[in-house]
Amino acid sequence: MIDRATFTGMYENFDKEVVVEIIDIFINEYNDRIATLQANITDNNTDSLYKNAHSIKGVIANFYDDEARDLAYKLEQKGKNGDMSGITEIFVNFKTASRNLLNELTELKESYL
After folding, report:
1. Triad 66, 25, 78: Cα angle to 5°
2. Over the stretch 62-107, which tens digit does the pLDDT of each residue have?
3. Angle at 110 between CA 29 and CA 10, to 5 degrees
4. pTM of this prediction?
């Protein structure tokens, strides 16, 4: 869930078009990023999992969603440590949290249009 007060405070001096662009980038890249993480897990490619989870964690941090960011961090650490134990549950939880973020961003975007 987005910390809206922090989000609003951080982006209050940005043009609305910039905020919409930042949101659109996440929305447009979401499905590919999830598919890539899934492929990393399926292929047991911990190095790529580490890099891709780190990348999406950074993007999510822009939206102040602690739950989705923390789950991305867990995926990142699993990849970094080469430890795939429990990865399916973490990934399922991450998909749920990040999908909720996607839905929130879609709604939030409307307030900037």
Report:
1. 45
2. 999 999 999 999 999 999 999 999 999 999 999 999 999 999 999 9
3. 75
4. 0.94
Q: Which residue has the tokens 């940005």?
A: 14
CA distances from 7 to 33, 45, 71, 88, 101 (A): 22, 34, 19, 30, 13
Helices 46-61 + 66-81 axis angle, to 10 = 160
- Round to the nearest angstrom and report the end-to-end CA distance of the chain: 21
**Per-residue model confidence as pLDDT tens digits over 15-26:** 999 999 999 999
Domain architecture of the chain: domains with CATH: 15-112 (1.20.120)
**Which residues are within 8 A (CB) of 76 and not within 5 positions of it... i.e. 6 or more apart?**
49, 50, 53, 54, 57
